[in-house]
Amino acid sequence: MIGDLRLATIVVNALDMNRAAEFWSRVLGYERKDRVGPGDQFTKLTDPDGSGPSVLIQRTQHIPSEPAPVHIDLYTSKRDEHIDRIVALGATRVDDWTYPDEHDFIVLRDTEGNEFCVIQVDDPA
């Protein structure tokens, strides 16, 4: 952290806010809070132990078909195990991604089509 600047929230666009909130709360083990913002435009998900950033599900009218300029990376020492679990929750593998010869990540799409990566690391902290 530099001064008081810190990562506080990751925003995920969704056409179906309820489906996206359910998906991400189950993937991350986060707690779903009430909808917030004007016209119930957002649903907030929070880390139950308070150590991770919040995830804000934002209702949108369109999910870009090209990769978004910002996405979520999930670190784990058990990548394939988590990929199987996350796909069972409704994610899909991105089969047309061009991976380098040696890679530690797999690209997935959430229930709304947003891309994110699950990355194999020795120490996820």
A few lines on this structure:
The chain is of the alpha/beta class. It has helices at 17-28, 79-88, and strands at residues 9-14, 31-36, 42-46, 54-59, 72-76, 92-93, 105-109, 115-120.
Describe the structure.
There is one protein chain. With 125 residues, this protein is an alpha/beta fold. The chain folds into two domains: 1-61, Roll (2,3-Dihydroxybiphenyl 1,2-Dioxygenase, domain 1), CATH 3.10.180; 71-125, Roll (2,3-Dihydroxybiphenyl 1,2-Dioxygenase, domain 1). It is 18% helix and 33% strand. The chain is built from two helices and eight strands, in the order E-H-E-E-E-E-H-E-E-E. It has helices spanning 17-28, 79-88, and strands at residues 9-14, 31-36, 42-46, 54-59, 72-76, 92-93, 105-109, 115-120. Strand 3 and strand 4 (54-59) form a beta hairpin. The protein is globular.
Sequence-ordered SSE layout with sheet pairings:
Layout (H helix, E strand, L loop, with lengths): L8 E6 L2 H12 L2 E6 L5 E5 L7 E6 L12 E5 L2 H10 L3 E2 L11 E5 L5 E6 L5
Give the amount of beta strand, in percent: 25-35%
Q: Which whole number gives the mean pLDDT? A: 85
CATH topology of the largest domain: 2,3-Dihydroxybiphenyl 1,2-Dioxygenase, domain 1
Order of helices and strands: EHEEEEHEEE
Record keyword descriptors for this entry.
single chain, 125 residues, alpha/beta, 2,3-Dihydroxybiphenyl 1,2-Dioxygenase, domain 1, 2 domains, four-stranded mixed sheet, 2 helices, 33% strand
